[in-house]
Amino acid sequence: MTFLLTLLAAIFVLGPLIALHEWGHYIVARLCGVKVLTYSIGFGPKLTGWTSKRSGIDYRISMLPLGGYVKMLDEREGEVAEHEQHLAFNRQHPLKKIAIVAAGPIMNFIIAIALFWVLFMTPSEQLATKIGSILPDTPAAIAQLPAGDKIVAIDGHEVQTWEGINYRLAGRMGETDNVSITLQSPTGSAENLKTYQAPVNRFMQGDAQGKDALSSFGMLPWQPQIAPVIGELTADGAASLQGLQVGDQISAINGIAVTDWISATRLIRDNPETLLNFTVLRNDKSVQLQIMPQGKKDNLGNDYGQIGAMVAQSEIIIPDAYKTTVVYGPGESLVKSFEKTEQLAVMTLSSMGKMLSGTIGLDNLSGPITIAKVAKQSFDISWEMVLSTAGLISLSLAVLNLLPIPVLDGGHIVYYVIELIRGKPLSEGVQIAGLNIGLLLLVGFMVLAIGNDISRLF
């Protein structure tokens, strides 16, 4: 059942993005006077579809849902009748070819901007960017960042939400330069801004790999003080099998005092397959237990511990000082959607460069299985998360397709730019050689990405 829901979520999110990407190629080709033969969502054998009686275009859904294609009349792919030669793609001016090829990625950029625009216009109550706590032995602790101050900028870039802070820090993955943090004191006056320099060394790598950017850096938003009382246990979880009971209150783990549920879960998550000594209060008596968290893997393949215990329900009241309502008008939302798209595109390209240079590992590369799991999780959270996930995936498709690798749209654009400069296309042999190299690279990256996906599953 879970597999089916994951598959349906992936189809629901990816299907429209692929269809609109190909529609970009399709509509610009027709506007440029090129005859379109086939519009396909997916590759391989045709599952269903129809042929337009007016245009003769074959619209289809194909078996392999890993992309799509628009087939155009082209003399390189077969004989073209003389009266239709002016409709062939290969006969078009290089600028028209570039426009047709670039239209797909541009459509994905437009989709991302539109989705982010809707999200920015949606009012949301969020945690204010005030630092709730500082984790020990982290860059934030070394820089002596004060809890309670408001984060206003990362490396000189203004931030207004914890999501924005997380993105800015994640963009520094693998780097060693100081991270600049600008804080505002609780008084809120502009004169009380202070900039701190936090040292990082291969940020989020080594022992910190697998943690999120905020935890790795060591500054966390306000978190509720939830009593670490067990409310529910899974029958086959480590907690139930090794003696923990509903109603137990965790007071210490491995001699470390536990005062709230979040600190308890952090210790558990950070110690998969490690025997931990629990001290719990049971009917006002102290009880000692030994529990080994089961090792699990998240969507990025990082290990974490889980004992199969849930906290007792309690009302969470966020102090007014630590919450804010974020809402923007249509114009400001549009500006912010462009800014977010630019920021994430730059971060995506930077991450690719870091993987190629070895600054960060190739295990950060994700494939279709991880994308499907993330899509499923977004449906479990909210419609806003579904739109956000779709926007991120659409942006990634745009950036990846514009890479100057033959087979991808970016590689074709390079060919047509060269043709524009030379006044004639590259020889067919050179183009075919490039396409073969590009195909080899693409298959290699796909095998690596799917291999990473599979390793994260097991």
Task: Explain the overall architecture.
This protein has 458 residues and is an alpha+beta fold. It has helices at residues 2-31, 94-121, 139-142, 162-170, 213-217, 238-241, 261-269, 330-357, 368-381, 383-401, 409-422, 428-457, and strands at residues 36-51, 58-72, 124-127, 133-134, 150-154, 157-158, 179-184, 193-198, 219-220, 230-233, 249-253, 256-257, 276-282, 285-291, 294-297, 303-306, 309-311, 323-326. It has a four-stranded antiparallel beta sheet with strand order 6-5-7-8. Strands 12-11-13-14 form a four-stranded antiparallel beta sheet, with helices on one face. A hairpin with a 2-residue loop joins β11 (249-253) and β12 (256-257). α1 packs across α9 (368-381) and α8 (330-357) crosses α10 (383-401).
Helices, strands, pairings?
Blueprint: H1 2-31, E1 36-51, E2 58-72, H2 94-121, E3 124-127, E4 133-134, H3 139-142, E5 150-154, E6 157-158, H4 162-170, E7 179-184, E8 193-198, H5 213-217, E9 219-220, E10 230-233, H6 238-241, E11 249-253, E12 256-257, H7 261-269, E13 276-282, E14 285-291, E15 294-297, E16 303-306, E17 309-311, E18 323-326, H8 330-357, H9 368-381, H10 383-401, H11 409-422, H12 428-457
